[in-house]
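Just curious. Invent one:
>
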Amino acid sequence: MKSGLTIKRINFEGLEAIELRTTALRLVAITARGPRVAFFGRPDGDNLLYWAPGKHRRGKWDLLGGHRLWATRPGADEAEETYAADNQPCEVETHARSITLTGAVDPVQRIQRGFKITLLESDCIAIDHFVRNESEMLWSGGLWALTCSVPTKETRYLVPLGDGSSWDSATMVGFRTWGGGHGGVGFDDPQFQFTQDAFVLHPAGRENKRMIRADAGIIALHDPVQRLVFAKQVDYQAAGNYPMGTNIALYVGPDNFMVEMETMGPVVTVKPGQVLAHRETWVLTTAKAAPTSEKLRGLFV
């Protein structure tokens, strides 16, 4: 099937941006600051991403929404430096089937964040997140990709569990509170449920989060209103040193203003001039009913 790919510079809600569009999907990444993906969805559909510049701030850091890249720290997936402001313009490179956005060098850590977005199929893209060590010193950390989605009343989030072996397991980290009092719902939260082979979130507007070790590295959103599935996948490294031993996370915002779909990479040491990478594959497909774990795994074979 022909993709009908176009890549062009645009203005998105008053910000300089670049758009990647096919017959099956539309993606907009802002270039005025970030890098951030501000829009993802059908070419003629609603934005699946929560986007609200200026509404949620922590000092100079602005949540903005959309999709972003954070750097975790050894032993602390969220630290003060995680919230370093990314308000400077991005460097932009365009190619026949891809765009690369690179942010400014962090003045303290001397690392540079960015991502390359490549069209694989008309309904499938790869996002290669990266951190480059621009200092003369060692840097250690991991990459954490966060996608702020907009749930409807019927939206479900699914994480396939297990590796299908005869010695099969999964790990979950629950939270009662974090970050100075966020959450507070507790461990017994019916928003989060298990099936025989998956972890499922039915967002009900109570602020909470869970972190999961999921071998398939898949996290998916099913929206029955738009009759679609947005799924993203990242390879899991069994020997990797992951934040709290997990590679997937789900965060429910108060009153369901957003749900964050998060993937983490293992913590490693990065020498001067080296690059740490974290690839997510995104698929946007039609689905009237919520997909099974088997079907979700099949999207990434």
